[in-house]
């Protein structure tokens, strides 16, 4: 039995160009995530899907809307676990750790959105919990951010977060690296 799991974080319609929080490069990230998922299924690795739903009165990730549905290209296969979360960290107040531990999972591979929020929080938590953590950088996406009146382009946001994760929290690879 494989001791590796793919954690597919928040690849939801809300992040598509038609959604309320469109991300730069989301179509490419979802396509790469689909390749990672297919390789994982072929290898017998566990695939766990994470869906975000807002608990607060915000206009996105509203429970029961099309925006919270998983992007069809990365849809769960029959029998794959889908966990709903309400915080950036996929482990916080969810059954993710329990599901991994019940299967004896030691290695996690993280893909999804947004690089600067849920990918960062989930990857750091996974490492802190003792899992060997890999982040597939081209299977993740983010958006431009603003700070102090300055726009930070999504490519710079993504690079900053991937470099920070690679520094101390996990191995950062490409889809081709992982699936080779």
UniProtKB/TrEMBL annotation:
Domain of life: Bacteria
Annotated GO MF terms: hydrolase activity
Alphabetized UniProt keyword annotations: Hydrolase
Keyword Hydrolase in record: yes
Domain Isochorismatase-like: 5-147
Protein name: Cysteine hydrolase
């Amino acid at each position: 039995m494989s001791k590796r799991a793919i954690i597919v974080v928040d690849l939801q319609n809300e992040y598509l160009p038609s959604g309320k929080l469109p991300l730069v490069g989301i179509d490419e990230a979802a396509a790469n995530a689909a390749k990672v998922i297919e390789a994982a299924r072929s290898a017998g690795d566990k695939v766990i899907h994470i869906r975000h739903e807002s608990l607060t009165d915000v206009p996105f990730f509203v429970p029961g809307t099309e925006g919270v549905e998983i992007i069809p290209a990365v849809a769960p296969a029959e029998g794959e676990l889908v966990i709903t979360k309400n915080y950036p960290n996929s482990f916080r107040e969810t059954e993710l750790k329990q599901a991994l531990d019940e299967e004896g999972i030691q290695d996690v591979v993280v893909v999804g959105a947004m690089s600067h929020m849920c990918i960062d929080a989930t990857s750091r938590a996974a490492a802190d919990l003792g899992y060997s953590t890999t982040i597939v950088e081209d299977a993740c996406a983010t958006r431009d951010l603003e700070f102090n009146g300055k726009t930070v382009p999504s490519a710079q946001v993504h690079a900053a977060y991937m470099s920070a994760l690679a520094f101390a929290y996990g191995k950062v690879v490409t889809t081709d690296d992982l699936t080779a």
